[in-house]
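Holo prediction. Input below; ligand is fe (iii) ion.
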Amino acid sequence: MDLFGQRNEPIATGAMILRGFALDLGLVADVGQVSDAAPFRHFQTPGGRQIGVEMTNCGALGWVSDRRGYRYEPHDPLTDRPWPRMPQAFRELARDAAARAGFADFAPDACLINRYVPGIKMGLHQDRDEGDMGAPIVSVSLGLPATFQFGGTDRRDPVVRHPLDHGDVVVWGGPARLAWHGVLTLKDGAHPETGRARINLTFRKAA
Ligand code: MD3
Ligand code: FE
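Structure of the complex:
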């Protein structure tokens, strides 16, 4: 606990969990607005498999995947329209969380929204599709709890597990920006705000 009643947990150089930083901001309702305009969908991997996590985006750029590869696009391939604008509450939360973790003036242009249902996981990977590796990534967990796996910059580095609950925010930057990470298989359960699902917002500077 710091002076302001915040629980901050450094988990590596450049990585910090801000427990409960995103409570009571109405974010789940904002996700509903975004997904009304740009529905959650399963992308295909470049290898032709379906990604288990359902995804959508808001902001100037959205992360997409298909047979042609992973990239950021200004238009939703499902609707052929620009991605919905990033809600102001999202933008402010991302900026405030980054500042709290020591990264001033974070101005994300992309927010990937991941939706997990029980039985779905995200395997270990690195995030390396962004143009600005100097900017941090801010991630917000909503709904069902999950176990996050965090390793080093080498695939073979040991992995540490961290529980993430509704309202927890994690900021990753500097030496942690290219760390391998993933999410273990979501356990069954129900959350009052999201039902049988976990939602993760990932804010990035993609351009
Ligand atoms: C560590 N999402 O969308 S967020 C992803 O919970 C992704 O949905 C996970 O990994 C999720 O790419 C984890 C936490 C996260 C995001 C980006 C990172 C951790 C990171 C980038 C570098 C290191
Ligand atoms: Fe990732």
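The pocket of MD3 (ligand 1) is lined by residues 112, 114, 122, 127, 137, 139, 170, 172, 176-177, 179, 181, 183, 200, 202 (CB under 6 Å). That is the main takeaway for now.
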